[in-house]
Amino acid sequence: MTRGRGPYGADPDAAVFVISVAAELSGLHPQTLRTYERLGLITPGRTGGGGRRYSQRDIELLRVISELTSSGIGIEGVRRILDLENRVTALAQRNEELQAELEATRDALRQALAQRRTDPRGAASSNRLPVLRGPDPGSSLVVWRRQR
Prior knowledge:
Elements: H1 19-26, H2 30-38, E1 45-46, E2 52-53, H3 56-70, H4 75-118
Antiparallel strand pairs: 1-2
Helix pairs in contact: 1-3
């Protein structure tokens, strides 16, 4: 499931569908939706009065659950599959963040090396490397350089 806008530019996380509409859109009975909620497979939004409101993302999730259960997978298997899919998504997102951070670090080092080559002070500044700040205050990055 990808992030972004749904059909017609609508926010896929906006909880707008009442349970009867969500049941019709997902092809499930309203009682099945309540059961899935009770089992923790889905968490619809709530109105001030406590009524359930489902988002387009919830409808997509209900369809996935329906496909899995209709193919013979039990509820605990569905729960495990959904958990693993969520972990894969989170890890892929973290991987992208780390790749971007690595590329930024490489760019900073390239710039430092290029500046060192053009620095008129030459050897006097050759032992200085850029200070690289981590995402958290107090974090640090150690850069090792081989001696020639």
